[in-house]
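Thread: quick sanity check before group meeting

JM: Hey all, I'm pulling together slides for Thursday and realized we never actually wrote out the predicted structure for the chain we discussed last week. Dropping the sequence here so it's in one place. If anyone has concerns about the input, flag it before I start.
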Amino acid sequence: MPEIFDPSTRTSYLAYQFAQSVGLRLEKALRPTELSLAQHNALVQVALSEGISSAEIARRSGMTAQSMGAAVTSLVERGLIVRGPHPTSRRIVNLHPTESGLALAERSQAAIEVCNAEIFGIFSEEDQDLLTGLLRRLVADCNPDALHLRRRPAEDGPAGDRPAARLGPQGDREQI
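JM (edit): ok, ran it. Output follows.
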């Protein structure tokens, strides 16, 4: 008979439970802004990387293109972002924040910061730095596009055209 392990002794189980809990807390913190977590992520990424495409936001967020497309459409309908043509490709649509979108991104980030302080306040500053470093290493391995969000995607070209890279021990992007 196979041995069945208690899942609470497994790191992946704990990471999943923690991620679920954090997601729920973030969604609750964002309610006053009338943004979902996906919409908040899209809005912030458009603000950081003006001209980004919905597909690139989806890759960075670890979401399907369809789910991110719905979030982006909602933001466009609310006048928080606008769609524009890509300079070299008719298939890619660039996204740009509006002034009201930038203001809401700032307000939603403030709500997220309060939530972060509540969640991670149980740790010392040193432990928070350690945890952040460990999480960055994990994300760099699992979804490197989720890091270093402040860049101009139009200059990078499609994701497949960028040289492969990873984060080094200091969090710097290194070519592979």
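AS: nice. The two ends are 44 Å apart (CA to CA). Confidence is low (pLDDT under 50) at residues 152-176.
JM: adding both to the slides.
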